[in-house]
Amino acid sequence: MDDIEDRNGIIFIIFGVTGDLTRRKLIPALYELLLVDKLPQPFTIVGFARRDWTDAFMVDTLMEGLRTNLRRVPVQEANGRQLFEKAAYVQSSFDEDEGYKRLGEYLAQVQAKNVIFYLATPPDAYLDIIRNIDKYKLKQIPSGWVRIVIEKPYGNNLESADELEYEVHKAFRERQIYRIDHYLGKETVQNILVLRFANGIFEPLWDRRYVDHVQITVAETHGVGTRAGYYEGAGVIRDMFQNHLLQLLTLTAMEAPVSFNADSVRDEKVKILNSLRPLTGIDAIKDTYRAQYVSGMVDGSRIPGYKDIEGVAPDSTTETYLAARLFVDNWRWAGVPFYMRSGKSLPARLTQIAIHFRQAPLSLFDWKNMAGDAPNVLVLNIQPNEGITLTFGAKLPGPGNQIAPVKMDFSYLESFGDEPPEAYIRLLLDCLTGDATLFTRSDEVLAQWKFTNNILNAWASNPVKNLPVYEAGTWGPDGADVFIAQDGRKWRNEIG
Question: In sequence order, which residues have a C-beta less than 8 Å from that of residue 86 and are 6 or more positions away?
């Protein structure tokens, strides 16, 4: 691991600096790291993009974005200007030789020692950028280190992910490659491992003997908006399932690593991905449920249906809602279903993992049970209100014999007096210090695509003319309730 106090400083090159990701996430995260003295000095931001900007215009635009998007602290002008003190801009398309030549000349002029290439562009530009970094030897720094950060989606299927892997490994070694999934930077996601492995009360219960099933939900209130062009070729399965949902599953199901370092943690995650029961052919049809939203009310406003959006084909069968039933075929989890779901235009923005424990033999009490079929539920709330909730049954006060559900809550804000930091703050700091624990490894991303590709192939072999629909602002189609009810279970639609 490289020391954050490296006196040679860092050149932070952002491909796609003019994009939304840079303004909303990257620059605010770098600013907050500057405030707590976690940015090595000198720290130089270099932007690379198509727009006809100047150095000064880039700085002014990013400063305005910082003022708009900084969430936790007010912007101090002096600190903001310090962040951009030596900033430079290279105007070029991503497949244009001249831009990379100018970037190489700049790196030679400033005698760059440590360099991070950050790909904040649309994914269709990744191959051009990586090939040109290699072609013009931009990664060949005489001393220091070089890293590359690649945003999701990492490929569009197994074949494209393989091609991207081939090209990036021609230019970089695996230890230099940081495939970023911002969900892994969220505090509660990291708390999954602490909750499981640092508390003796939970780990003995974390298996098929005591867990009835697991539900992992990623719900979004907004529709596809202006992203219809991307979403038509992606759907929920590529946008959420292949990355976020499978990552949450691996952290929930993995064994304890021998050490909390990058290779040990990722070794255990890959074991889970390789233990997933393949969903192929008719099994993939039976164990997944797709739907599209139609017009409805979300947050008091009516939004158009998916097929009413410009850029969406009138006969589109792209799913905006996906539910899936997965099994981890290993000793710990044999027979325990993992129910995954994600959707657009749902009634709440919500990401949570709910561990439903097996029912106790309540017939021994012969009491009226108001706590439901499985009262013991451990819920990890990842967003919007990060925290952990444990639900259990307790005797209702009074002369009658009734069991009622009660909750014990841990709120990040209430317990620690502040909201958790943005995920990008932790991930960028880890990238600066050379810690890849929370980033996806090569075999990991390919295992995710291998599993997902089986589902995509099964859908392609069993085409449908229309998908079931659900009204925007609801928790999804009725068929999704039937999907889980066939197993004698129901979706948990609570925010806390």
Answer: 42, 44, 45
Query: CATH 3.40.50.720 spans which residues of the chain?
Result: 10-151
Closest CA to 148 of 128, 133, 163: 133
Burial of 74 (0-12, 13-18, 19+ CB in 10 A): exposed
- Those residues whose C-beta lies under 8 Å from the C-beta of residue 20, and which sit 6 or more positions away, are none
Q: What is the topology classification, in CATH, of domain 10-151?
A: Rossmann fold (3.40.50)
**CATH 3.30.360.10 residue window(s) in the chain:** 184-422+440-485
Which secondary-structure segment (H or E) carries 72?
none
Q: Is the peptide bond between 399 and the residue preceding it cis, with omega within 30 degrees of 0?
A: no
Token pair 């999954």 is at which residue? 192
Cβ neighbours of residue 238 closer than 8 Å, sequence gap 6 or more = 153, 156, 452
pLDDT digits (tens, 9 = 90+) for 106-161: 999 988 889 999 999 999 999 999 999 999 999 888 778 999 999 988 999 999 99
Alpha-helical regions (H) of 70-115: 77-83, 97-109
Contact (CB, 8 A) for 352 and 341:
no
Q: Map tokens 């809602």 to a residue.
A: 321
- In whole angstroms, give the CA distance from residue 44 to residue 360: 59
Interacting residues of 372 by C-beta distance below 8 A, sequence separation 6+: 405
Choosing from 182, 213, 222, 244, the catalytic residue is 244
User: Which tokens belong to 395?
Assistant: 């005797």
The helix (run of H) or strand (run of E) holding residue 163 is helix 158-171
The residue behind tokens 């700091």 is 429
Establish whether 244 is a catalytic residue. yes
CATH 3.30.1490.20 is the classification of domain 184-422+440-485: no
Looking at the chain, how many residues does it have?
496
Omega into 123 within 30° of 0, i.e. cis? no
Output the DSSP codes for 291-315: EEEESEEETTEEE--GGGSTTS-TT
Q: Which tens digits make up the pLDDT trace of 388-419?
A: 888 877 777 776 667 777 788 887 777 776 67
Tokens of 491: 């979706």
Q: Which of 278, 279, 303 is nearest to 293 (CA)?
A: 303
Which element (helix H / strand E) includes 149?
Answer: strand 146-151
